[in-house]
Amino acid sequence: MNTLVNPTPSKQKIRRAYVPKTALAKSVRFINEMMEVALTDGRIIGVPVIWFPILHEATPEQREKYEIGGGGVSLHWEEIDEDLSIASLLAGGDVQSA
After folding, report:
1. Domains of the chain
2. pTM of the prediction?
3. Is the Cα torsion angle 74, 97, 93, 91 positive or negative in sign?
4. What are the DSSP E strand ranges found in 20-79?
């Protein structure tokens, strides 16, 4: 005969992994031919600058003059009239094939 014994529940709180619900930009930097976008959740998105012809042709000074819009959902370069969404950066190469 099997007797099941219910162990007393542990009083330790279960810690869950952090799962970001929204990707928001915190900063942008350019290193060689890559653009790196730091997100508020700690991730860094790296994409080739050549994917964005206007940014690729811009001077380093023009690239540094960006604004983060919508609380972090978009990037804007006023001087060169370029706009990128964080969602499109996360989509990666799929954006290029559309």
Report:
1. 25-97 (3.30.2020.40)
2. 0.73
3. positive
4. 25-31, 34-39, 44-48, 67-69, 74-77
Token code pair at residue 4: 């099941």
What does the pLDDT profile of the chain (98 residues) look like in tens digits?
566 665 555 677 887 765 556 789 999 999 999 999 999 999 999 999 999 999 999 999 999 999 999 999 999 999 999 999 998 898 875 545 44
Q: Residue 32, CB half-sphere, CA atoms under 13 Å: how many?
A: 3
Residue 81 amino acid letter? D
Sheet holding 74-77, edge to edge: 67-69, 74-77, 82-85
3-class SS shares of the chain: helix, strand, coil, % to 5 = 25, 30, 45
Structure tokens at 49: 């600058």
What the block records as the tokens of 56 is 């690729």
